[in-house]
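haha ok so turns out i had the wrong file open the whole time. this is the CORRECT one, sorry everyone. sequence first:
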Amino acid sequence: MLITASAIVAAVPMLTYLLIIWRLDRYDPEPFKLVLQNYLWGAVGAIVFSIIGSVLFTYIISFFTPDKTELEYYSTIIVAPVIEEFMKGIFLFIIVVNRRFDNLTDGIVYGGAIGLGFGMTENFIYFVSFGESIGGWVAIVIVRTLFSAVMHCVSTGTFGAFLGTAKFKSASSKILLTLAGYSSAVLIHFTWNATVSFRSTAPLGFIILGITILIFISVFLFAVAGERKIILKQLKLEAGIGTIPIEHLIILSSSKRNISGWIDEKIRKIYISAATTLAFRKMQSEKSKGASKNSYLEEVNIYRQFIKNILETNSGRYE
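then structure:
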């Protein structure tokens, strides 16, 4: 009974958070299949490697700190943030090469998904291990669902944001932003673990994490608004050369595009997807060099022609 209840309350809130983050990325949403892969890495891969890494590093530290209480302190405060943020972040280095990963917003979505997956599994372990009484179990569920697991989302989402920002930068900037992102993730994790490990500083930990979450959400919403500006800017140029009708410009860069009636419903979704991808491929081509730039420009031409074709061949293309 405890295991079943723990599994449900560990999974449902984290999957709900995941859907909220994914839906908030409304202008250029990432493929949910790809988001789910990141979530599963956090839930399984990152957990397994974090356990192995933590055990190994704690064993090494034990040679210098034989006292068990002190060793546990170092393991929680120092080892856990350093190892766990590294293991969670590994998958971001794999996904960042994907063409869908092109800015700060994408980094937040993918990193946040990894953190939520990690938080889900870690919550389940805690719920099963430390639920000695109903009251104690409920208290752990509330704290970890609203704070501890969300901390993992924020920390890895922050790392992802830095990687998204770094994608089209110079090599030296990539290194600096990557180190800054990882350090920020570790700092968020470290601050939470350090403060809530002691009753006297726990209230401060909740306050600091609460402020951090608000900042994280604000940055995310600001980044999403930035994607709208990218679409508007790039498609304005396309309207100028006749790729899309000028009257579609505002619609395609706002929530109006999800309302039926402005174009034949048979092509609305594919038209929105193609126009959005065209806008971002144009942005990517502007920030790239060499073979990468040529590759993006090739896709720009493909999507541009595709849009022209569906608008020209569909008799009810717009009203």
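The longest helix spans residues 202-240.
again sry for the mixup
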